[in-house]
Amino acid sequence: MLNYRRLALECLLAFALTTLVALFFHRILLSREPLFGSDFVLQFYPWKTLIFDTLQGDGSLPFWNPYVLSGTPFIGNIQTSMFYPLGFLFYLIPADRAFGYTIMLHFVLGAVFMYVFARSIAIEKAGAFVASILFTFNGFLVGHLYAGHLSFVQNYIWIPLVFLFFNKFVQTFNPLFALVSGLCLGVQILGGFPQIAFYTIMAVLLFVVYHLVYALKKGQRSNLLYLFYGTVLVIVVGFCLAAVQLFPTY
Question: pTM of this prediction?
């Protein structure tokens, strides 16, 4: 039976995390002041402006960048994150405004994703709340934010969600959880910072090795195949979803 009081408390904590993010970015909300960083100004702003102008003018996405050298393949540049679904604001409003709102959206999602993951591994509400704050406002992430590393932020927030569903797969061996984990990995890759996606895959593999060793020590040999197939499913689904970007990049 659904515990409405517990659900209300969980929602209240998620709202509190959202409020903290809103306070952190209050200048964007109150004064519509753009959020800037060096790499955003010098790199992401021109790229996103090219996408916005081409989409608004021709109704299509730019596959070629005529403004660098004698022209370069724009679709092959993974850092433009042209196919990243949560970058939709860059298609609707100018890049200088879209940047701040996109970053806010990702900080909110990162906070909520980490909270839900922490709760899923039996961490109490207070501990999950602290874990979420540390994940969202640590110097590693905020440093990249102030440097204007849009693609880094877009990749970073998906780490807990990949592990949330993969851990559920390990607990239940339900392939649906491995499938969803793979979809999250695919979206992460499309975020445009493949290093973080690579580290995520390495962490997943280490997680699998731990459970393989545990299964061997417990004599649960039937679990080995489940773990192997689930891991393959996560990686294959992730790369298939991101293939629209990976093949041109390759």
Answer: 0.92
